[in-house]
Structures are given as C-alpha cells and as structure tokens.
Design brief:
heterodimer; A: two-stranded antiparallel sheet; B: mainly alpha; 2 domains; 75% helix
Chain lengths: 170, 326
C-alpha cells in the first residue's frame, strides 16, 4: 500500500523538522521524557489502586484511593499531549506501523476500564468496601493486563517500524 | 558538550568497596550469631545492600578503564578479559546477596525476625560472593602488577581453585555478543525495565505523595506495605538495565547521562538510609488518617521524588548523550 503524501507534508513542516533535528534538549527527547513520565504516573497509579482492589494491604481504606485517580489522569493527559508531539515528529514511522493501532486500541480499552474503576472507587462510601472489592478485583486485574500489553506494544514500536520517514525505509 | 572521566582512576577508587565491604559485612553477619545479636545482623545486612549498590558503578567503570589502558605498553588484553569474566560472575552474586539482604531487612522490619531460609541463603551466597570477589580483585591486580604473578609469564591460564572458578565464568566477548544478539531481546529487556519503573512509581510515588500531604485520609503504615513491590521493580530494573549495558558497553559507558543516572541511584540509596536509619520512618508508622507527617519525613519524600525524576530523565536522555565522555 502506498504511503499517503500528507505524511511527507507533516514531516517537512518547520515544527516537525525542528523536533527531529534540533540539538536543543527540549526537542524530540524532551517529549519522549514527558511521554515516559506521564505513562509511568498513569500506569504506576493504576498499579497502586489495582493492587489494593486485588486485596493487597487490607488495612488501607479504599474510598480515599479516588484521590490518586487525579494523578493517574494527569499522567494520562501528559502522555497524550506528548504522544501527539512525538507523532508530529515521525508521522510516517508511527502511522504505517500496524502495531501503533494495536497500541491505540489497548490504550482505549485501558482508559475505559480505568473509568469504570474510578466510578467504582468513587461509589465506595455508599456501596461499602466489601462490595467495591468484590466488583473491583476483576476490573483491576483486567486493567493491569491491558496496561502491560499497551506498554509492550508502545515499546515495540521503536523496533518494528517499516519507514523511519516518508520514503525512507527503517 | 564533552565531559572527562578518568575511568581507570574511578575504577581504582571504587573497586575496593565490593571486596572490603563484603568482608566487613560477612564478618559482622557471622559474629551476630554469637549471642544472637540482632543489631549486628541488621548492620551487616545494611552493609551488604549498600555494597551491592556501589558494585554497579564499580562494574561499569571497569569497562571504561579497559578502554583507557588496553593499548598501553605492558598491558595484556587476555588478562583484562580474564578479569572481566570474573567480574561478570561476581557482580551478579553481589547483587543477589544485596537482594537477599534487603529481603532480610524487610522481614526484620515486619516481624523483628529473619526467616531461617533467608539467614541461610544470605550466608551461603555471601560466602560464595566473597570468594568470587577475591578472585575478581586478584585478576584485576594481575593486569597492572606483574610483581604479584607466580611466574614470569602472565597468568592467563589459571590453576587450582582459579581454574575451577574460571570454568563458571562467562567468556566476556561471547556474553556481550549474546546480550546484544537481537533487537527484540533488547526490546524485551527494555519493556521489563518500564514495568519495573511503573512498580516503583506506583508504590514509592504513592508513599511519597501521602507523606507530602496528599490523600491525608489514608494512614501511612498500610501504604508502606507496598514497598516490596518497589523493591521487586528495582530488582527487575537493575537486572534488565545491566544486561542491556553489558550488551553494548561502549555505547553506555561513555555516556554522561548513564553516570548521572547512576549518581542519582546512589543518592537514592543514601536517601533511603536517611529514611530508615535516622528515626524518620519510626515516627511515620504512627501517622494515622488525617494526620500530617513530620517535616524531616517530608524532606526525605521530596528528595525521593526529585531523585526518581532524575533517574527517569537521565535514562531517557541516554540516546542523545552518547559518546559525551572523552
């Protein structure tokens, strides 16, 4: 399948070229750093909340966990924003790799499960901790598995791309 | 931007720590059995953990020292390879000893007692480590000190116990090649490295945030129970990080970001010592829901956050700081 021409136009734009070629520490690697920090906050908090819902540290109250969702979503937004910039830097590399779409699908699923987990934890005070834990166990396990696969897909993007830039095979 | 590090000097400065530190730790550990001295045993485990941490830059500086001296007159490349093979084996044993010591410290903290399996495994592995470390020291000394050779010839072929140990040591070139054999192997290790990071960020991050005043409705002691997951993450990351480094030693050793990351890790070790050994943590365990942590604990938590950020940041900048050390 032919690579769409608009990808070349994005790559040739001033901002995309600057992100790739600048020697400034605030170029491509800075956004990669932000992407990592955002992702580690989002998945890290998911791990913390998930482990509690799975039954770890039973003397830790569940209801106050809802505060940690703020950190989780802050991380997710940082990751999303920096991800867009990274996509702008190498659009052909990402958009011609089928694994990129697998990653997006996994992230979508992860976000959906996390939203359900957040609702469950927010309702903990009215529903009671026991009910929350019974319902939360399966959700937490699913969230952890989905994030695990999403990270793996993201990690593999750096090793499985067909084109680095438009017309330039990797 | 270029930096200068004299790796031969740095290696000489650091390489006594794993050998002497292990000897001191094992001596204290053995003495602690007389009269069942719990404080002494705890001290020995802390030293084992600290030595395991310092062994990481010691090992990495060896790669740089090799490049610094290999072409100098009188330096034998086979002797360096022999030392490297020995170091590759003793390094992992030192890290296992450190990991077991940390497990023992955790058990001491939770139950005021160390499980029998842990005592025996620390004893067994540390005794092996000390033998391996002594050989690593000896083979290292042979590189620059012909006056300690048994004969006039360079001792490339070992005899006695040396030959027995040599049989278990990896051939450095083959090991390095095996580590860098495929890009998917590196991808797998880097993937695990990120999993380790999320375990650390999720558990240490939550604890630090609570200490700093976030989610005050939670008591502190139950959050601290998540720390073994952070230690598991640290174990995963030391293992995967070092395997990747061994696969491409020249790429990583001469990169200033790698050394900044290692420095941040060492400072994290000191910060953890400040947390657990100065009474800061003892007070924290009493902090109930709605209560504030003391100021010293907040300072330690803030340092921890900054240092973990530094570890992630320097790790991410490794690619762009390649060959910055001359």
């Amino acid at each position: 399948m032919e690579v769409p021409l608009f990808l070349s136009k994005i790559e040739d734009s001033g901002i995309s070229t600057w992100l790739r070629e600048t020697e400034s520490p605030f170029g491509f690697y800075f956004f990669l750093l932000l992407h990592n920090i955002g992702l580690s906050l989002a998945v890290g908090m998911s791990v913390f909340i998930g482990f509690r819902l799975l039954g770890f540290a039973p003397d830790l109250p569940v209801a106050p966990l809802k505060k940690f969702f703020k950190i989780l979503w802050a991380g997710a937004w940082i990751s999303f924003g920096s991800g867009l910039v990274l996509l702008l830097s190498y659009p052909t590399k990402a958009l011609t790799n089928p694994l990129f779409y697998v990653k997006l699908a996994l992230i979508g699923t992860g976000v959906w499960i996390t939203l359900r987990m957040e609702k469950l934890v927010s309702d903990c005070e009215s529903a009671g901790e026991e009910v929350t834990l019974i319902k939360g166990k399966a959700l937490a396990a699913r969230a952890l598995v989905v994030w695990l696969f999403a990270i793996t897909a993201g990690r593999l993007l750096a090793y499985t791309f067909r084109y680095l830039l438009y017309g330039q095979q990797g | 931007m270029d930096f200068h590090i004299n790796f031969a000097h740095l290696h000489l400065l650091l390489n006594h720590v794993p050998i002497l530190g292990t000897i001191i730790a094992i001596a204290l550990f053995l003495i602690s059995f007389c009269g069942k001295n719990g404080d002494l045993r705890r001290a020995s485990l802390i030293i084992f953990a600290g030595v395991a941490l310092v062994t990481i830059p010691t090992f990495v500086s060896g790669f740089g020292a090799q490049v610094n001296i290999v072409h100098q007159p009188g330096v034998s490349a086979p002797l360096i390879q022999r030392h490297l093979g020995s170091a590759m084996l003793s390094f992992w044993f030192m890290e296992i000893t450190g990991g077991l010591a940390i497990a023992g410290l955790w058990q001491l903290h939770r139950t005021s007692n160390i499980a029998r399996w842990n005592v025996l495994s620390v004893l067994f592995v540390s005794l092996l480590t000390i033998g391996l470390m002594a050989r690593t020291g000896n083979t290292g000394g042979d590189i620059r000190h012909p006056e300690v050779w048994d004969s006039k010839e360079a001792p490339v072929q070992d005899t006695g116990i040396g030959s027995l140990l040599q049989a278990f040591e990896p051939a450095p070139d083959k090991f390095i090649k095996a580590m860098g054999i495929s890009k998917f192997e590196t991808a797998f290790l880097m993937d695990l490295h990120f999993f380790g990071l999320t375990l650390i960020v999720g558990t240490v991050g939550a604890l630090n945030l609570r200490i700093l005043g976030f989610a005050k409705q939670m008591p502190l002691a139950p959050i601290h129970k998540f720390i073994p997951w952070a230690l598991l993450g640290l174990g995963i990351n030391v293992t995967t990080g070092m395997l990747v480094l061994i696969g491409m030693p020249a790429y990583y050793t001469f990169d200033i970001a790698v050394w900044c990351k290692l420095l941040a890790l060492m400072l994290l070790g000191l910060n953890a010592a400040a947390f657990y050994l100065t009474g800061v943590f003892g007070e924290l365990e009493q902090v109930k829901a709605g209560e504030d942590a003391a100021v010293p604990a907040k300072i330690v938590a803030a340092f921890s956050m900054c240092l973990w950020f530094a570890v992630i940041m320097f790790g991410r900048y490794i690619q762009s700081f390649q060959d910055t050390i001359i």
